[in-house]
Amino acid sequence: MLSPLSTGNIFVVSLSVADLVVAVYPYPLVLTAIFHNDWTMGNLHCQISGFIMGLSVIGSIFNITAIAINRYCYICHSLRYDRLYSIKNSCCYLCLTWVLTALATVPNFFVGSLQYDPRIFSCTFAQTVSSYYTISVVVVHFLIPLLVVSFCYLRIWVLVIQVKHRVRSEHKTKVKPSDVRNFLTMFVVFVLFAVCWAPLNFIGLAVAIDPARVGPLIPEWLFVTSYFMAYFNSCLNAVVYGLLNQNFRKEYKCILLALCTPRMLFMDMSKCGTDGLKSKLSPVATNNNLAEINL
User: Which UniProt keywords apply (predicted)?
Assistant: First the structure.
């Protein structure tokens, strides 16, 4: 039977896959388009590239939501966590996350919204194809996940504040400084996600409400900036982990040392893996371990 650490790590790995998948296919095609100053790979590659990029974007959003729900259940409903997030259930939740991601991306083929945009040299979601569909995308892919994640972290914040100030003195609760730092790590990830994605989604929402009037008023530099802000968010997650979480800094150091000394690669990775098993982490690799809180 796997520990809460292992089940929680499933969602962190899934988020990493969602962040990295664009580097496999879409980004090389984008670089080719930049080099030729046009899309020269044909419509089929354009559709596939746009679909994979959509999977990455929506997958990242849905996985961030799944991590927030996982963290909320572990901290606020710790007595039921083992039952809710058994290894079987966790795998089912993970499959459900990616099934919903695929279902949310497939309608682009029927609407015809995956088009080449010369402003960003990418085949991506075109906000002006269908006003109703664009509004639905913003609501389902951004606003609803934002509300769910906000609720989860708000409940966790309330619980942390209650424990810190001994409001609920009838319970023997204890919050370690390291637990608070780990919680702050994923909270910062969520805040950066909201900040990076908000401009592009609000531009899309404004254009969808009144395409004829609002569309021409959106300057090209603003759209391009908001677009690259959104996709740059995937790069920021690893930086945040490294800056704010001691365990990630330790693993990064092991990886860098192994890369710098190839002869020690297997020895360093083995040592890092052994140290990781000995360390006491929360259900997610960056989670705040408040297992001692009983509600």
Answer: Biological rhythms, Cell membrane, Disulfide bond, G-protein coupled receptor, Membrane, Receptor, Transducer, Transmembrane, Transmembrane helix
